[in-house]
């Protein structure tokens, strides 16, 4: 097997070999090359010590000397070069107590998480696959190197990584590995929220975000997203739905593009339903105010998982308004854009479509027709550049002060009153017209 390696990575391998050391590209770049995917990074493993690596290259960065890693700079690119190592005992389910450098490539590969990540390649030697990674790629299996209980005990984040790789690659988890997932899922409590967040986003952004179901079935989501587990146990006895809340969420994820805000919104858009579920005398379920309940819950979840403020603000607003259904006339849509926010209204339209497609086909045509009218009206608003917020109002607070109004709260109140007028009649969004309205009010 011949893999195509970037010239700069080959230069590093050649330089190390010329100096008498072994060197291989290793891990994800080998896996992705075999799969025909473009690797994000080219990591290199070598028998040379960090100091020996530093002596061979002019420009290096001490990325993690305690773990044997030096970043070699080639032009504007950086390549992590790590000494073969054996990890000592893991005391916290995250980090080895010590790292021991070794001259054995086999020992280095033995410590890695999954067989598909434990392959190395060198142009002169070829593929080094000591644990059946190539066969697992062919069989589309995620399998731990060695004893899965040991691998997951060493670093509990590997539990999330197993599911994430399944979602990214469309693979299945091998039986013994799957059993170990279920046994050790509670160890995720030892993992920081930041690390879990990274894996969750990668899973959601994958071609198979609905593989979150695997995490639920293994008891993994219970450890970091128990609200989702409740959704998986909450039925929806209504003609509008054909799945329980959780399955509806999983299906909806497939109907939006891999955008972080959109995928997180679909994950959380109905998270408030279990809390507000009411069943009437006919056995039909109702979920009134689930948008408001979901807004608060989504905020709590995203903050717990240490998401950035911008993402939190967008997702909770979309969660709040996802079920808001304006009529398709331009006036109603102008007001909807104002209420929801012009910055996230395009997201809102995609959320509404995904939500609809993950429901039953009950009244599907009527729902689609209404949404199509909303989209058409929104396009018309954009084409005509109609005012939908204070940002595009033809007058500002400074204009009102120049017109004789005193600075203060009253300025904001008047601007909002003018905006209401313009939302009803966008042709009035002209400075002279709005100032005349203000002057008439002042005289009155």
Structure description:
With 444 residues, the protein is of the alpha+beta class. It has 23 helices and 13 strands. The protein has helices spanning 7-18, 28-35, 50-56, 105-110, 133-139, 148-154, 157-169, 175-184, 193-204, 212-217, 221-224, 226-232, 245-253, 260-268, 273-276, 290-304, 309-321, 330-340, 345-357, 364-384, 397-402, 409-424, 431-443; strands spanning 23-26, 44-46, 60-64, 69-74, 77-83, 85-87, 99-101, 119-122, 126-129, 141-142, 172-173, 278-279, 285-286. It has a seven-stranded mixed sheet with strand order 3-4-5-2-1-8-9. A hairpin with a 5-residue loop joins strand 12 and strand 13 (285-286). The longest helix has 21 residues, at 364-384. The radius of gyration is 28 Å and the shape is globular. The termini are far apart.
Could you give a quick summary of the protein structure above?
The chain has 444 residues and is α+β, with helices and mostly antiparallel strands.
Write the SSE topology.
Elements: H1 7-18, E1 23-26, H2 28-35, E2 44-46, H3 50-56, E3 60-64, E4 69-74, E5 77-83, E6 85-87, E7 99-101, H4 105-110, E8 119-122, E9 126-129, H5 133-139, E10 141-142, H6 148-154, H7 157-169, E11 172-173, H8 175-184, H9 193-204, H10 212-217, H11 221-224, H12 226-232, H13 245-253, H14 260-268, H15 273-276, E12 278-279, E13 285-286, H16 290-304, H17 309-321, H18 330-340, H19 345-357, H20 364-384, H21 397-402, H22 409-424, H23 431-443
Parallel strand pairs: 2-5, 10-11
Antiparallel strand pairs: 1-2, 1-8, 3-4, 4-5, 6-7, 8-9, 12-13
Helix pairs in contact: 6-8, 7-9, 13-14, 13-19, 14-17, 14-19, 16-17, 18-20, 19-20
